[in-house]
Amino acid sequence: MKDLLVRAGRPDKLGVVESLLRKASAWLASRSNDQWQYPPHRDCITEALERGVCFLAPEDGKPIATI
φ and ψ at 55, to 5 degrees? Predict the structure, then answer.
């Protein structure tokens, strides 16, 4: 397994975080798991990005995970 570099996201990464969460939601749904079957809370994500407590991990320059 390759090490991931995890960094705090910036407020301009709201769309990236939302996209990752929507993809995770769709992946869970495809496996008959109803966890995360709601739209991401933009206000909470925006606040987390502004506070520096929302993180992104890229692979080959493309974000693949968020915390």
Answer: -120, 155
